[in-house]
Amino acid sequence: MGFADTRIRSLETARECVRLGARPRTIEWITGLPPSFILRSVFDKTHRAPRGRPPYTEEFIFRASLKVQAEISIFALRYRQLKADGFSPAQSLLTAYRHHLTVIKTPSFCFDEAFFLVSNLDGIWARRSPAVDLCECLRCGCTHIVPMGSKAKSGCPFCRAHVVAPHSGHHRADVLPSATPAAAPSLEPCAKLDGRIQALRAHRQFERLGAHPRIVAALTSGTRGADRLSSPDSASPRPRCGHPLSLKRWGVSVKTVARIRYSILAVAYRRLLESGFEPVEALRSAFVHTASLFPANAWLSFDRCFEVISLMDARWGVAHSELDLIPCPKCRSHHLVSRQDLTAAGCPFCALIRQPRLCM
């Protein structure tokens, strides 16, 4: 997995941890993000981080009431099942706790304590070695949490809760209290975190399409949450990658098949703009859709398609439109023509109909 994919996953994991009520220290352990970055980008003045140390200790596991022991055993079993299915520890932790919230509306332990339990269960993050394990009860067969190295016993939090010794003087309400402590309230991450994730996703998508780093910078510079914002208007310099298209000899220097592909791309781009898409997303979607219509070895590069759209729409460093999308009076197909072309370029679709060998 590349650096960009790893960074996106870390930010998305941090966002989910915050929504479940995690503290900065817990987020740091799970994601590996620096503490200063978490306090600056995940939280802000409007969305403040919880104060104080995380509320987890060894007593949370070994000296908890039977009700808490039963709940953490159910959660730990779900976590182990998700890991066995191939999910990462972080995704298994998040999914298992979200599932636990759907089953028990007011859980007895917060997300930070669930993180501490997983750390002790697998020997990761806050623990260097496992301290607890899952074991089946010899009496009822329920899976429950036990200290590492302990043997299976007859009696667990599930079956012991239903057994009340008549001479002990305790009642069921003392063993399983009805009032459960409320978990940590869910929080909302910093608003600019979503923008940062969106910018990194866009950056990665254009890289996968084969875009040059200069083209990627031009397309993502105006994305909300980008690390370095620059003006995406016509005043910014036009990114150059290779020799520019010849606008004065558009109908001669550009092959007929290439002009057809550019025209199909331009039509798809215009339709997406009219449907309400942003220019950057319209360009990406139009390129992916048009490229799927042609063989992989016969399609044009993303950089050339970016240049054509920027010249047609006067975007990304182009001050004035240099290409027009006009309809052909004969075949009614829309095709691109250059305003600087010294010779009148005919419709490439009509030329291909007259001479099919041009596509060979």
What does this structure look like?
This protein is mainly α and 360 residues long. It folds into 2 domains: 3-161, no CATH class; 192-359, no CATH class. 48% of the residues lie in helices and 6% in strands. Helix 1 packs antiparallel against helix 2, helix 5 (66-84) crosses helix 6 (89-103) and helix 13 (256-274) crosses helix 14. Mean pLDDT is 82; it is low at 164-180 and 224-235.
Uncertain residue ranges: 164-180, 224-235
Q: Please describe the biggest sheet, giving its number of strands, its sense, and whether it closes into a barrel.
A: 2 strands, antiparallel
Spatial strand arrangement across the major sheet: 1-2
Shape: elongated
Strand content: 5-15%
Counting H and I runs of at least 4 residues, what is the number of helices? 16
Provide keyphrases for this structure.
single chain, 360 residues, mainly alpha, 2 domains, two-stranded antiparallel sheet, 16 helices, elongated
Summarize the SSE layout with pairings.
Blueprint: H1 3-19, H2 24-31, H3 35-42, H4 59-62, H5 66-84, H6 89-103, H7 111-122, E1 132-136, E2 143-147, H8 157-160, H9 172-175, H10 191-208, H11 213-220, H12 250-253, H13 256-274, H14 279-291, H15 302-313, E3 323-327, E4 334-338, H16 348-354
Antiparallel strand pairs: 1-2, 3-4
Helix pairs in contact: 1-2, 1-10, 5-6, 5-7, 10-11, 13-14, 13-15, 13-16
